[in-house]
Design goal:
By secondary structure, the chain is of the alpha/beta class. It has helices spanning about 5-15, 25-60, 60-85, 95-100, 115-125, 145-150, 160-170, 195-205, 255-290, and strands at about 90-95, 105-110, 130, 150-155, 175, 205-215, 235-240. The protein has a seven-stranded mixed beta sheet with strand order 1-7-6-2-5-3-4, sandwiched between helices. Helix 3 packs across helix 5. It is globular, with a radius of gyration of 20 Å. The two termini are about 25 Å apart. About 30% of the residues are buried. Mean pLDDT is about 85; it is low at about 1-10 and about 285-293.
Length: about 290
């Protein structure tokens, strides 16, 4: 079968997954997922109304408050992931957690298969910063207190965004960026935007490709409903830091637009191909399991 035919087959399998084998377990997974959402909302309220005022008293300096806030959110997200594991909602496998903890002044670029990706990454990186959808920074949104004080909402102008990203990296933070700009499609990834490469070129900080894999994230993908879940098993996240980093120095002799384009292409090669291979292999294995059942 040619590449086009294989892609169509994988798309069809994602849109028409294997049937649910254990309905009681599936319902329990959905309940666990909804419980996790409620837990997250309640936790966000407590962080905004209780934890942040305490941190401001302990760390009156804005920079020290932001640093303490990043570490606190990382710890809280680790606790949240532990809650999801205990309830049977998800599992997390990481090749080397120490590598993530020791990162400093770099740009994490990752594929974006699900709603939980940024939570997983922040739990691993104590000094993680990230750009957050501007709507989450609005005063009508529950998370605006956290977003506005710790992270970078996207409602700023391009020049302001670049300056805030550079400042954060200079302070030793790791900036998390999903080059797709939104969650992946069920059948594969979107084209990559050049923003991460431009920030790397402007700041001199390297791009660290991180691949987020695992099983089908049905129920956490874009446009999925809250009552959807993986039809066969709990969510399994496998997070791998790629060995090959992308350094802006290697592209310094090129004009900025050309350098950003080539760096983005390199990131795409490191992340997108593996994702497509994994999707195909996952469903091939799943077909084998059903054939042998």
């Amino acid at each position: 079968m040619d590449e086009t035919g294989e892609t169509i087959r994988v798309t069809e399998q994602f849109e028409n997954p294997p049937p649910i084998k254990n309905y009681p377990l599936y319902i329990l997974h959905v309940i666990a997922k909804i419980s996790a959402i409620v837990f997250f909302v309640i936790g966000s309220i407590i962080i905004s109304l209780v934890l942040f005022p305490v941190l401001k008293l302990l760390f009156p300096s804005p920079k020290r408050f932001k640093k303490a806030g990043h570490h606190a959110i990382s710890v809280i997200f680790r606790f949240f992931i532990g809650f999801m594991h205990i309830t049977g909602c998800s599992a997390l496998t990481v090749d080397d957690k120490k590598k993530f903890r020791n990162l400093k002044s770099c740009i994490i670029v990752a594929n974006h298969p699900s709603l939980m990706d940024v939570v997983m990454l922040i739990s691993l990186i104590p000094n993680a910063d990230c750009m957050v959808n501007g709507s989450l920074g609005g005063k009508k949104n529950l998370l605006h207190i956290i977003v506005r004080q710790l992270y970078i909402p996207t409602f700023f102008t391009y020049e302001e965004m670049m300056e805030k990203c550079k400042e954060s990296l200079q302070e030793g933070n790791c900036l998390i960026i999903f080059p797709e700009g939104t969650r992946s499609l069920a059948s594969g990834q979107h084209s990559y935007k050049k923003g991460a490469a431009r920030i790397s070129l402007a700041s001199g900080c390297p791009l660290i490709p991180v691949y987020i894999g695992g099983n089908d994230k049905r129920g956490l993908r874009k446009n999925d409903t809250v009552f959807m879940f993986n039809n066969q098993e709990k969510y399994h996240y496998i997070i791998k830091m790629k060995d090959e980093y992308v350094y802006p120095e290697a592209y310094k002799d090129l004009p900025e637009p050309a350098a950003a384009k080539r760096m983005t292409k390199k990131i795409h090669e490191l992340l997108c191909d593996e994702a497509n291979i994994e999707y195909i292999e996952f469903y091939k294995n799943d077909e084998t399991r059903h054939a042998n059942a």
